[in-house]
Write a structure and sequence with these properties.
- Chain A: Its EC number is 2.2.1.1.
- Chain A: It is an enzyme of class 2 (transferase).
- Chain A: It comes from Saccharopolyspora gloriosae.
- Chain A: Residues 24-188 form the Transketolase-like pyrimidine-binding domain.
- The complex is a heterodimer of chains A (330) and B (295).
- By secondary structure, chain A is an alpha/beta fold.
- In chain A, 36% of the residues lie in helices and 20% in strands.
- Chain A has two domains: 25-187, Thiamin diphosphate (ThDP)-binding fold, Pyr/PP domains (Rossmann fold, 3-Layer(aba) Sandwich), CATH 3.40.50; 200-329, Rossmann fold (3-Layer(aba) Sandwich), CATH 3.40.50.920.
- Chain A is built from twelve helices and 14 strands.
- In chain A, the strands form three sheets. Chain A has a seven-stranded mixed β-sheet, sandwiched between helices.
- In chain A, helix 1 (29-40) runs parallel beside helix 7.
- Chain B is of the alpha/beta class and 295 residues long.
- Chain B has one domain (13-294): Rossmann fold (3-Layer(aba) Sandwich).
- Chain B has helices at 14-39, 44-61, 85-94, 135-148, 167-178, 199-202, 208-214, 227-239, 261-264, 278-294; strands at 41-42, 76-79, 155-160, 184-190, 193-194, 197-198, 218-223, 248-253, 272-273.
- Chain B has a five-stranded parallel β-sheet with strand order 2-3-4-8-7, sandwiched between helices.
- The longest helix of chain B has 26 residues, at 14-39.
- The relative contact order of chain B is 0.16.
- The chains are: A alpha/beta (330), B alpha/beta (295).
- Chains A and B meet through helix 3 and helix 5 of A and helix 4 and helix 5 of B.
């Protein structure tokens, strides 16, 4: 008889999903939405830099091989070429990981795409803390980097509903856009609310008398879950989802944050330069003096590891949000 | 004004084409000196060096409609070295896209002709250059997009040898070959000088032909101030311009200040300062040289 082997710990850091067990999901919503859009619009082309399979672009590539362009592991070429295609009248969607778009190809996005205000759609996988692979792959500061780029629209979708509805609107928008892509099996959450993605607009998903959550990206899902839990503690929470970070829908958000409810921002991004600071700046502009509690990633390079552990560690988990809000109200 | 320029296809013999190009290059050099005088300084040396390359391109090769710079079937010319704008403005004036009188506004407030080339300012300017190593990546996308749209328009990218330092240039070189972009031609000004000194002392790029050839490009190297050699090289590149062909590069060894002996021998040549009294002397030398050669 052999000696029983010790069970090995596994993390599957790269492919880890932030979906909860048993949660409804949709497979590769971006790829399917782009392939469907391309059926109606011959100008749509897809490009990637050796990450087609990991940005759901492979779905488009299989449906429209003549309009898919593999650029190799060459992000500067990826975005320069996307600019060239837009210059001759096409509508490119160019995908890579957010870290490579934001850190490695910034000059190309800025000068070749944003300055001439071309309709190039930048698709960034693994935004914020959606991989346990460590700082090389965690784009925790992508919004902070991109907010300073004139002309660029920044979208941080919550779920498959947001992504499916956003794709045609990104293509229809004249200038460049950046989509923080959720890929693979993406949770479907917003179908349970009376909700429609509108580029540049925030939406009140639920009302509540004690606390206002202002959230974007996958943190809207967590905000909705935490709101349910907080109800059991007798705390009534409103959730305002702002998937477009720039241009920011200050009108809707400030209307909701005005008053004496506790305001909490929730984002899958460093506390520096993202949703929290966007809202704080808008408040300062109009002379609002409320306190805002940020739930965001710390201003640090993050650990590698399993995604659920890391979300707990850095305060993005459902339970961490609930504890933080209860502590604020105590 | 002719609706579509490109004397290559007009049935002239090589000698007649060369004469036409040389005359255009002479006028362009005059324009460059006039514009340089407005500012008192600039990339005049490089501009004089590439006048023959640009004259061949604009007078002999490019299909364009001067009165309609955005004509969809035009060939695209991308100046990735935005600081060479003074050279391109002279070419655009020679091609009839920018009025000659407007060259007097070069670098002035409110002018359509800023010192570094920008697409939003100048008719006929396809991209904003300046940050080096961008042009060839955009050119790859344009060539791919034009092919997808069944257009036979060609794409020319003008680079400097300094841009061969940039990794993005080689990303684009590999991409163009991989995608079989026969309609793409890169033309490189090998003037052997960059901002911090001679190219060989800043970052060695030789043997440049071998590098391009290793990337799978149809590679030629010519004296960039020999008009006949340039015409032959551009004609050979045009032969490659099939939808699924081989991209072409023409490495052009040029002489900074070419045509004006006073400037050809100047020590500080990258960003040239020329005294007030010297401009007329430069023009006189240019004219004497041109008339001497034609006599």
């Amino acid at each position: 008889m052999s000696t029983p082997t010790k069970k090995r710990l596994t993390t599957s850091a790269m492919i880890a999903s932030f979906a909860d067990p048993g949660q409804p999901t949709s497979s590769a919503p971006f790829g399917h939405a782009l392939a469907a859009l391309a059926e109606q619009d011959q100008r749509i082309v897809g490009l990637t830099a050796d990450l087609g399979k990991y940005t759901d672009m492979h779905v488009f590539a299989e449906a429209h091989p003549d309009r898919f362009f593999q650029m190799g592991m060459a992000e500067q070429l990826l975005f320069g070429a996307a600019a060239g295609m837009a210059e001759v009248g096409l509508v490119p969607f160019a995908s890579t990981y957010s870290v490579f778009a934001a850190r490695r190809a910034y000059d190309f996005l800025c000068l070749d795409i944003a300055e001439p205000n071309l309709n190039v759609n930048i698709i960034g996988g693994l935004p914020g803390l959606t991989t346990g692979y460590g700082p090389s792959h965690q784009a925790t500061e992508d919004i902070a980097i991109f907010r300073g780029m004139p002309n660029l629209t920044i979208v941080d979708p919550c779920d498959s509903v947001d992504i499916e509805q956003a794709v045609p609107q990104l293509a229809a928008a004249d200038g460049p856009t950046y989509l923080r892509l959720l890929r693979g099996k993406v949770p479907t959450v917003l179908d349970e609310y009376d909700y429609e993605f509108r580029l540049g607009k925030a939406s009140v998903l639920r009302g509540g008398n004690d606390v206002v959550f202002v959230s974007s990206g996958l943190m809207t899902m967590r905000a909705l879950q935490a709101a349910q839990d907080l109800a059991e503690h007798g705390v009534d929470v409103s959730v305002v989802h702002s998937p477009t970070i720039k241009p920011f829908d200050a009108e809707t958000v400030l209307r909701e944050t005005r008053g004496d409810r506790l305001v909490v921002t929730l984002e899958n991004h460093t506390v520096v330069g993202g949703l929290f600071e966007t809202l704080a700046a808008e408040m300062a502009k109009v002379g609002e003096q409320q306190r805002v509690v940020p739930i965001a990633l710390p201003d640090r390079f993050l650990d590698a590891g399993a995604l659920p552990t890391l979300h707990e560690r850095y305060g993005l988990a459902r339970g961490s949000i609930v504890s933080k809000v209860l502590a604020e109200l105590a | 004004m002719t609706a579509v320029s490109a004397s290559r296809t007009e049935g002239l013999d090589l000698a007649a084409r060369a004469d036409r190009v040389r005359e255009a290059a002479y006028r362009m050099r005059h324009h460059m000196l006039d514009m340089g005088e407005v500012q008192g300084q600039g990339y005049v040396g490089q501009a004089l060096g590439v006048a023959d390359m640009l004259a061949v391109t604009y007078v002999d090769q490019l299909r364009l409609k001067p009165e309609d710079p955005h004509w969809e079937q035009r060939d695209r010319f991308l100046l990735s070295t935005g600081h060479y704008a003074i050279a391109l403005y002279a070419a655009l004036a020679e091609a009839g896209i920018v009025p000659v009188d407007e060259l007097d506004t070069y670098g002035s407030d409110g002018s359509r002709l800023p010192m570094s080339g920008m697409a939003s300012y100048t008719p006929g300017m396809e991209i904003s250059g300046g940050s080096l190593g961008h042009g060839l990546t955009v050119a790859v996308g344009m060539a791919l997009g034009l092919r997808l749209r069944s257009s036979s328009s060609r794409v020319f990218n003008f680079l400097s040898d300094g841009e061969l330092d940039e990794g993005s240039t080689w990303e684009a070189a590999m991409g163009a070959k991989h995608h079989g972009l026969g309609g793409l031609t890169a033309m490189v000004d090998m003037n052997a000088l960059q901002a911090d000194g001679r190219t060989e002392s800043v970052l060695s790029i030789e043997p440049a032909e071998e590098k391009w050839a290793a990337c799978g490009w149809f590679t030629q190297r010519v004296d960039g101030n020999d008009v006949e050699a340039l015409l032959a090289a551009f004609d050979a590149a045009a032969e490659q311009a099939e939808p699924h062909g081989t991209p072409s590069v023409i490495l052009c060894d040029t002489k900074i200040g070419r045509g004006v002996p006073l400037l050809e021998t100047r020590e500080k040549a990258h960003f040239m300062r020329i005294d007030e009294h010297e401009w007329q002397q430069c023009r006189d030398q240019l004219t004497a040289g041109f008339e001497g050669a034609s006599a």
